Amino acid sequence: MTPRQRLWLFAVAVAGLVACYLWAFAGLPGFGDYPGPYGPAILKRVITETNATGVVSAVNFEYRGFDTVGEEFILFTAAAGMSVVLRQLRGERERQSSPTDDAANRQVPATSSAIRIVSLLFVGPTAVIGWWLATHAQTNPSGGFQGGVILATAFFLVYLSGEFIVFRRLSPIALLDAVEAIGAGGFAAVGVTAVAMSLPYLYNYLPLGTIPGAVSSSGTIVLISFLVGIEVAAAFLLIIGELLEQTLLRREGSS
Amino acid sequence: MTPNAVMDILQVTVLVLVAAGATLVVRTRDRVLLVLVLSVYGMLLAILFFVFQAPDVTLSELAVGAIALPLILLLTIAKVRKPQ
Amino acid sequence: MQVFPFIVVAWIVVVGLYGMVTSRDLIHQVVCLIVVQSSTYVLLLAVGYVTGGVAPYFFDISPRALAVDPVVQALALTDVVVEAAVTALLLSFAVQAYKRFGTLDPHELAEFKG
Fold first, then answer.
1. Which of A1, A6, A213, A224 has its CA 20 to 30 Å from the CA of residue C81?
2. In a domain, C37, yes or no
3. Cα–chain-centroid distance for residue C33?
């Protein structure tokens, strides 16, 4: 099929898609006229039921905790899948040197001092901010997912400043695997212990505290958010680590 | 002007910018330039989510779409480059 | 203003799909897929918006204030982070295709059989 025929087929298909879209959007309430009963129902009772003032995180880890478990395992599987897909193909032989040795012998221009100073200056504050975000899900716009990604960014800054060897030493694969497993398994375990107490799966059984939004309030939400944070950070570091191994490890037997 | 009208104008402006950004991302062919334009598009999306009163989603999109995803893309491009 | 966000969503989907169909580079195709995914985030947030509503965080405002829908925000939030990991998996497939066949052009890749 020539490209022109493909383009015509695409035009016909997209015309049908847009027609269906416009038909669907004509039946929606207008932008801003949200009628639905689910949102206001949750907003009315979230503080009395969970003592959390960060409603989005409460929805994520308490009211719809089951969906979040599924999403977290998608993340886990993607990181594991990458290590499987990027394994050595048949017929490749690794050179004797390890990736760390290769990095030391690379002929690349040194990173400029401006980039190094700024990157290394921001590693500490970024790590602290990521940690704070992951552990304060019930108070502010924070939560496990965004805290975990920002925590991983702190490690990326070390790599960006040119210190690949330090980056590799700060994040060994065995440690990252263990942390990711603890995060994902811990989340599932928190739910299963609820079942062991003859409560529904992922029921909030820890004490709820007295002040809405304080650090020690809202029961399992804090614990789950912390576990999700470390799991997301470990998954992103594993992904970057896999791609970096590919870039620096020169393999013989293929181009 | 009422606060609602100000909000409306802000949202319409950012929506138009996002639509223009998406078109620009698709029309770029050079790989490294594509990563840069994708990063700018991620920041525009983060501004849009902020104007839609969703600060949590803003944080996520900023951290992922403007930082982590371009880094992953750049590493992949480095891997599939023809050796000079 | 009643339907403008939905029109922008439809535009982003069409533009992204057009980029995927007419692309000659696997990396450009993956980036167009990212653009199509971003349209779903905009759609989710546009559906849950309430005119005059504030962000649903009640640490310093009264719990009785009019707030936008928190459920769609929770969905979009996990979506953004997870799709990044799935895109990384797709890119690793592209790397393996390059190592195996030496090209990243989808038109040429379509002719190889296994």
1. A213
2. yes
3. 7
Domain ranges of chain B: 3-76
C114 within a domain of the structure (yes/no) = no
Q: Name the residue among A53, A235, A243 with its Cβ closest to that of C58.
A: A53
Cβ contacts (< 8 Å) between B5 and chain A: which residues? none
> In this complex, which of B56, B63, B72 lies closest to A149 when CB atoms are compared?
B63
Inform me whether the C-beta atom of residue A143 falls under 8 Å from chain B C-beta atoms.
Answer: yes
Instruction: State how far residue B10 is from chain C, nearest Cα, in angstroms.
Output: 11
Would you list the domain boundaries of chain A?
60-87+114-249
Q: Provide the H-helix boundaries in chain A.
A: 3-27, 38-50, 55-58, 65-85, 99-104, 113-135, 144-160, 164-170, 173-196, 220-248
Q: Which two tokens stand for residue A126?
A: 């970024």
CB contact under 8 A, A75 and C82: yes
Chains that touch B (3 or more CB pairs under 8 A): A, C
Residue B18 CB contacts under 8 Å (≥ 6 apart), including other chains? B41, B44, B45, B48, C8, C12, C42
Task: Give CA–CA dist B65/C46, Å, rounded.
Answer: 19
> Best of A140, A151, A243 to disrupt the B interface by mutation (most B CBs within 10 Å)?
A243
Query: B64: which chain A residues are within 8 Å (Cβ-Cβ)?
Result: 149
Q: Tens of pLDDT along B28-77?
A: 999 999 999 999 999 999 999 999 999 999 999 999 999 999 999 998 99
> B16 CA to chain A: closest CA distance, Å?
16
Q: Nearest Cα to B60, choosing from C47, A56, C11? A: A56
Chain mean position to CA A37: 30
pTM confidence score: 0.89
C97 belongs to a structural domain: yes
Using CB atoms, pick whichever of B60, B68, B75 lies closest to residue A247: B75
Specify the number of domains making up chain C: 1
Model pLDDT for residues A113-161, shown as the tens digit of each residue: 888 888 888 999 999 999 888 888 877 788 888 899 999 999 888 888 8
